Amino acid sequence: MKAISFAEFGPANQVLKVSEWATPDPGPGEVLVKLCTTGVNPSDVKKRAGGFPNLLDDGAVIPHSDGAGVIEGVGSGVPTSRIGERVFVYQAQYARLHGTAAEYVAIDTLRAPRLPDNTAFDVGACVGIPILTAHRCVFADGDVAGQWVLVTGGAGRVGYYAIQWAQRAGARVIATASNEADALACSEAGAEQVVNHREPGWGRQVVEQLGGSQIDRVIDVEFGANLPELLDCLRTGATIATYSSTVVPEPILPFRTMMFMDLTVRMVIVYAMPETAKARAVADTQALLVEEGLRHRIAQTLPFAEIARAHEIIEEGSVRGCVVVTL
Known about the structure:
By secondary structure, the protein is of the alpha/beta class. The chain is built from eleven helices and 14 strands.
């Protein structure tokens, strides 16, 4: 099979190589998926750039966690009825070397749930990290019905789905965005109000736009950078669910202030979610896909030969939404 791999850390156009690999055999409890698409996420880019120094200790890596395709084979313990099933793949390159940047992947059957027939494979490549992260952030700490939920970076990969999960669950959503196009995307996804997170004092603007009401729950994309503004708009007892802190990777917490606000901070990463949470997120996602009840923001779709460019687009931060590579 053809695969993209890297055996050293560095720029995408220098270290990502196309080569021939043996097609894997599905082991016990595994399925063999012929991939049609692979999704590129910030975590994939960080791994290739050297963010996990021990990653290459056991050999070259085929990157990417997310993708979609068709099951062509099954290992022992998996019913043969799964052969021919359309699936999305998630968590493919976690605690293992070989992800979805290849023509085939052999993976635990749980990590290859059914992709509804009405759902395109490019959408299937977005279901993993973006949709499941958003689901966990919204629902990990209880019912959001009737609450004010703030989604920072609402036009991004995770934020765009978080708005939709929260709004469909009965929350009232306010989002942040930095330009008119992104603000429109947030509104189309279900946000009632949008503030510009490039403007100083946007936390106070949130409260003003809500007529003095404060935020019950935040789904946050830049914890360290956004925290000072969040403290200006959260109610006592609020929850912050955050999945990234790139600009300020080691935040310093104003402990006394946060303690007297009785705040809860939840840090979310798909790989460490409880299996029950993953199962619920997958089932809820499949149900909405069948209903065509989710909007999708696919920023760019590129051919396999341009996978390095896909990595560069993520690094540049020049687009909002999912970046998909076709095989």
